[in-house]
Design brief:
InterPro entries: Leu-rich_rpt, Leu-rich_rpt_typical-subtyp, LRR_dom_sf, TIR_dom, Toll-like_receptor, Toll_tir_struct_dom_sf. The protein is α/β, with parallel strands linked by helices. 21% of the residues lie in helices and 19% in strands. The strands form eight sheets. It has a 24-stranded mixed beta sheet, with no helix packed on it. Bound molecules: 2-acetamido-2-deoxy-beta-D-glucopyranose (7 copies).
């Protein structure tokens, strides 16, 4: 209970749900469960079942009938002691069976029946003592049999091995084999068909009887840490006489060294062995006793010396046939060029990972077949690369000097001008960038000067590399952090890596010649722009890495020039601007999920309200909303403009309406100061003064008229005056209608106001005085119906005495209606 409380939740979950479904319906891991059978929840479609660390104890027949589709079954450490007949009967498709770490006590003679397709059987640590009773003779498909960590004492391969025609790998790693005798491997002799790897490492072999391997043909024989001392090893190797093997691996394990040092003649037994490749591994103490190292292996075509404390190259036999020589983790201080030149047939030379190797002063002598020299991952520091070191190696094609200390490159490649591959990466270089050092490497197709602290100043830094297809120069720099004409003549380039070069700008013409370029890596720079003009010449591009720059957007013009051939585009980790003006780009990003790499790292940098939002999660509809907002605000603005225009145009009317409404409230308060408000055209002012004002104001009774030029209050807006002084303070309105009146907008307006006023206030009418010369049609049009209204008075002014008389009578009659007399006036009368 306490334990259950302490287990973390996911583990508790595991306990309730015993098996982990690794691939739905296909692969299940039921590891570490104390189960005692195939769990019922594992479906019959399962191909891959891991039951390791279970508590199965014993397998009975048809134990796995519920999972007939199994290909892979892992029964590691299942406490198995018994496997009865037909336990795996139903597993016709099983190809791998792992029984590691089960102390088998009983294995039925038909235990593995039914495993007709089994390819790999792992019986490591299963307490097997003998091959004789192992019931595997019918496993025709078996390719790999691992019997490591058992108690097998004899290498005698039983007769049934002749049936295992597919066997390629047989391991007796860490068993109890002490003697190998003639006849033990007889079954392998028949047919010579096997390309078998036989592993005998970590057995304590005391003796190999000569003839045991006679006429045996193996793919590989591994004897590491198999002998306890020099004498045993020396004599046992004699027993390999007659063996034919593709690769022989002899040596120790790093952590399990039994032999102390290499002594003269140790490998003499190998003179009788025919092999293609010899590997000597993990010998520490060579001291000076190495001169016989190559004695019996001088004729193999490939030698690998790994993790040997070899300080000098041992004596090289005459007429050596060695074509490939590799020294890895050796103790050379100097590239032993002179001695290595004795391997006249040498084609491939590798000296790598040797931390003491720092000097390269010796020259290689004539090695006309030498094609590959790999001196990578040492501590080399030298000058005068590279003709100096290889004066007579005209076929040198690969030269790898990467991961060394520092090298000065003079530009002299005259003797190695057939170089195809040159790798200097991560080695500090002097020369490239400052001078055109590669001029003579006209055939070079691959150049790696990444992270070599090269600073490209010279215009012609890469001149001469007319065949170059791959140029890797990440982690360097260019003059003023600007790419200009450096790649002018590299017209065959198909891969260019200029990532991490602190670039700020790329000049228009830079890529002009690179019409065959397929891959461009310009990531990890400081570029702000993807200028269509710069990248347009790259018509063959398939992959472009522009990640980790300071790009804010790919404009439409940039999207247009991306070639159709492009299949990978990485613009992640830039400083994207997710403003809605770039909605085209944002939409494009969503549509191009197949093309775009690392989309999860494409993140908005601006504007702040979407900062750190992934471009993939960016809500495009928010932009559409904004678009409609834009549209509606445009409409609002338009409406406002129209409104203002209308206000401007109909200002008077509007103002008037306003005053009208307020006037309703005030009219009652105001007295009738005037008998009439006269509206007239200014051109008729003379007439008004002479014919209207004088007789009316000076007559009896006197009428009081409101005249705008006389009675309006100065400093008050004219409109206010019209309303306040004119209409609100007068009982009547006299309109003096002339041609000028009809043509004047102002007068028409006043007249309109008067008409509306009349309607609203219900006041006595408008007195229309029509002067003689007025156009009647226009008059009818303007005055409309108002002249027929009952309250209105329509008078025509005629310059005849009799007509005037009638006119005056009518006019005074109308004006007298409703006139209130004040005391003064009454007195006067
Ligand atoms: C495993 O299961 C067996 C019974 O099948 C039981 O006796 C044993 O105690 C269990 N062990 C553990 C560690 O739960
Ligand atoms: C697997 O089980 C299902 C029922 O759960 C059955 O219909 C199907 O035939 C079985 N398949 C095999 C190969 O046994
Ligand atoms: C190994 O098998 C032998 C019998 O062959 C047996 O006596 C011994 O106990 C087994 N060892 C283990 C660890 O089960
Ligand atoms: C022999 O087997 C090894 C690996 O087990 C393989 O690399 C090699 O190509 C094979 N050789 C032949 C001739 O089949
Ligand atoms: C040169 O050696 C380095 C380190 O071993 C390796 O990574 C690189 O691929 C080699 N270069 C060539 C061109 O083979
Ligand atoms: C450019 O390349 C052409 C052939 O591709 C060659 O003839 C010419 O000399 C080269 N120019 C330079 C400056 O390397
Ligand atoms: C481009 O170069 C960077 C580092 O310089 C590297 O991490 C990245 O994988 C390269 N891109 C491609 C597509 O190879």
């Amino acid at each position: 209970m306490v334990l259950l409380v302490l287990v973390p939740p996911q583990l508790a979950n595991c306990l309730r749900n015993p098996c982990l479904e690794v691939i739905p319906d296909r692969a299940f891991t039921c590891m570490g469960l104390n189960i005692s059978g195939v769990p019922a929840e594992v479906p019959n479609t399962t191909r891959n079942l891991d039951l390791s660390f279970s508590n199965l104890k014993s397998l009975g027949s048809n134990y796995f009938s519920s999972v007939p589709e199994l290909h892979h079954l892992d029964l590691t450490r299942c406490q198995l002691h018994t496997i009865e007949d037909n336990s795996f009967k139903d597993l016709h498709k099983l190809s791998t069976l792992i029984l590691t770490a089960n102390s088998l006590q009983y294995l039925g003679p038909a235990a593995f029946d039914g495993l007709t397709l089994l390819k790999k059987l792992v019986l490591v640590e299963t307490n097997i003592t003998s091959l004789a009773d192992l019931p595997i003779g019918h496993l025709h498909s078996l390719q790999e049999l691992n019997l490591g960590h058992n108690n097998i004492a004899s290498l005698k391969l039983p007769e049934y091995f002749t049936n295992l025609t597919s066997l390629r790998y047989l391991s007796f790693f860490s068993n109890k084999i002490t003697h190998i005798s003639k006849g033990d491997l007889d079954v392998l002799r028949e047919g010579n068909r096997l390309n078998l790897t036989l592993v005998l490492s970590l057995n304590d072999i005391k003796y190999i009887e000569p003839g045991s391997f006679e006429k045996i043909h193996l793919g590989e024989l591994v004897l590491r840490s198999s002998f306890e001392n020099f004498n045993v090893m020396h004599s046992s190797l004699q027993g390999l006489t007659g063996l034919q093997v593709n690769r022989l691996i002899v040596g120790e394990f790093n952590n399990n060294q039994r032999l102390v040092n290499f002594q003269s003649g140790l490998l003499s037994g190998l003179c009788q062995v025919r092999m293609q490749e010899f590997v000597l591994i993990c010998f520490r103490d060579f001291e000076d006793d190495t001169d016989t190292l190559f004695n019996c292996i001088g004729n193999v075509s490939s030698i690998r010396l790994v993790d040997l404390q070899l300080e000098e190259v041992s004596e090289v036999p005459m007429f050596s046939q060695v074509k490939q020589l590799e020294c890895k983790k050796c103790k050379f201080k100097e590239v032993p060029a002179v001695k290595l030149s004795l391997f006249k047939e040498l084609r491939v030379l590798r000296i790598t990972k040797s931390k003491y190797l720092n000097s390269f002063r010796e020259k290689f002598h004539t090695l006309s077949n030498l094609e590959v020299v790999d001196l990578s991952e040492n501590r080399l520091s030298f000058t005068g690369c590279c003709s100096l070191q290889f004066p007579k190696c005209p076929n040198l094609k690969h030269l790898n000097l990467s991961f060394n200390s520092d090298i000065s490159v003079t530009g002299d490649f005259a003797t190695v001008k057939n170089l195809l591959y040159l790798d200097f990466q991560h080695t500090k270089l002097f020369g490239p960038g400052s001078y055109p050092v590669f001029l003579s490497l006209q055939k070079l197709i691959y150049l790696d000067i990444s992270y070599t602290r090269t600073h490209v100043k010279a215009q012609c830094a890469f001149c001469g590399l007319n065949s170059l297809q791959v140029l890797k120069m990440a982690g360097n720099s260019f003059e003023t952090n600007k790419l200009v004409d450096s790649f002018k003549n590299l017209s065959h380039l198909h891969t260019l890596d200029i990532s991490n070069c602190k670039l700020v700008q790329v000049d228009q013409s830079t890529f002009g010649a690179l019409t065959e370029l397929k891959e461009l890596n310009i990531s990890n720079n400081k570029l702000l722009l993807f200028d269509p003009g710069v990248y347009k010449p790259l018509r063959a591009l398939t992959a472009l890495d522009f990640s980790n720059n300071q790009l804010s957007v790919l404009l439409d013009s940039a999207l247009e020039i991306l070639p159709d051939s492009l299949v990978l585009l990485d613009i992640s980790q830039n400083l994207f601007d997710c403003s809605c003006i770039h909605v085209n780009f944002l939409k494009w990003v969503k549509e191009q999920q197949e093309l775009l790499q690392h989309e999860e790292l494409m993140i908005c940098h601006m504007p702040t309200y979407v900062k750190n939002v992934s471009l993939l999660n960016f809500d495009l509809s928010s932009c559409q909303l904004n678009a409609s907002m834009v549209a509606s605000s445009v409409i609002v603005v338009l409406a406002a403009v129209v409104f203002l225009f209308l206000v401007y145009k109909y200002y008077f009317q509007l103002y008037y309406s306003l005053v009208l409404l307020s006037g309703c409230k005030h009219s009652a308060e105001r007295g009738n100061t005037y008998d009439a408000f006269v509206i007239h055209s200014s051109k008729d002012q003379e007439w008004v003064m002479k014919e209207l004002v004088e007789p009316l104001e000076g007559g009896t009774p006197p009428f009081h008229l409101c005249l705008y030029y006389r009675d309006f209050i100065p400093g008050v807006p004219i409109i206010t005056n019209i309303i306040q002084e004119g209409f609100l303070s007068s009982r009547n309105v006299i309109a003096v209608i002339s041609t000028d009146f009809l043509e004047s907008k102002w007068c028409s307006f006043e007249f309109d106001i008067a008409q509306s006023w009349q309607l609203v206030e219900g006041k006595a009418g408008i007195i229309m005085i029509v002067l003689e010369e007025v156009n009647k049609v226009l008059l009818r049009q303007r005055l409309g119906l108002s002249r027929y209204l009952r309250r209105n008075t329509y008078l025509e002014w005629k310059n005849k005495e009799i007509s005037r008389h009638i006119f005056w009578r009518q006019l005074t009659g109308v004006l007298l209606e409703g006139k209130r007399w004040n005391h003064e006036e009454v007195k006067l009368m």
